[in-house]
Amino acid sequence: MQSVFRSMLLLSLTLGVSLAVSTPARADDQAQSDVPRMADVVITGIELYNPDSSRKRLGSGLGYITDEHAQHLFTQYYSKTGHELLTLFAGSTVKFKRSFKGYEIQHMDKKFLTARRVLRDVKQFETGKGIHLGISRGKLEEILGNPSRSSSADGSEVVHYELTDPNSSFLSQYSAKSYTADYTFTHGALTDAKVDLE
C-alpha cells in the first residue's frame, strides 16, 4: 500500500498535480457555516465575540472610549486614507471579554478626525462577506438577501436586517438575543453600516 501511495505521490509531483488530503473541519469553520446569509460578523479580519481575532488584528492595548451618549464602551480606528472610520463596540458579557459585540463603518471628512488610531494597512474597511462603503443596495441584497424592512428619510434610505429567533443556533453560540444590521444609502451608495449582536 505504501509503494502505491509513493508511486502516486511521485506521479503527482512529476505532473504538477496536487493530491487532496482530507483533514477534519476546524471548530471555527463549523461556526462560520452556522452564520445565516443575512449576518455579517467579521470586519477587517475581526470576528465579533472572538477575542483572539481582535488581539491578532489590533494588539492587546485596545483603549476603550466612553462618553455621556454611549451605551457601551467602544474603540475607533481610521482607514489609511482617513476617509473611513471604524467603531468597534465592546462585548457585554464576561464569557467574551476583550472582544466586540458590534461595529460601524462610516465615511468621515478628514478635517473632523477624532480617533487616535489608524489601521495603516487598510485603505477601505470591508466585512467578511465583502460589504464596503460605496456599494449599491442591489449589491448588498445580492450578498445578504432580502432585508427585514427598509425606510427613507431626508434623501437617505436605511435597509434593516434582524434576527431574533430564540431557537437560532447562530444566536445561541454567542449567548445573544438578537442580531441587527442597518445599512444607510445616500444617492444610491452605502455610506454607513452598523451591525450589533447582543
Describe the model.
This protein has five helices and nine strands; from the N terminus they run ααββαβββαββαββ. It is α+β, with helices and mostly antiparallel strands. The protein has one domain. The strands form two sheets. It has a seven-stranded antiparallel β-sheet, with no helix packed on it. It is globular, with a radius of gyration of 21 Å. The N terminus is likely disordered.
Task: Provide a concise account of the structure shown.
This protein has 198 residues and is an alpha+beta fold. The chain has five helices and nine strands. A seven-stranded antiparallel beta sheet has the order 3-4-5-9-8-7-6, with no helix packed on it. It has a two-stranded antiparallel sheet with strand order 1-2.
Q: What attributes does this structure have?
A:
9 strands; 5 helices; 7-stranded antiparallel sheet; 198 residues; 21% helix; alpha+beta; two-stranded antiparallel ribbon
Write the layout of secondary structure elements.
Blueprint: H1 2-15, H2 27-33, E1 42-43, E2 46-47, H3 51-58, E3 74-78, E4 84-90, E5 100-107, H4 137-144, E6 149-153, E7 156-163, H5 169-172, E8 179-186, E9 189-197
Antiparallel strand pairs: 1-2, 3-4, 4-5, 5-9, 6-7, 7-8, 8-9
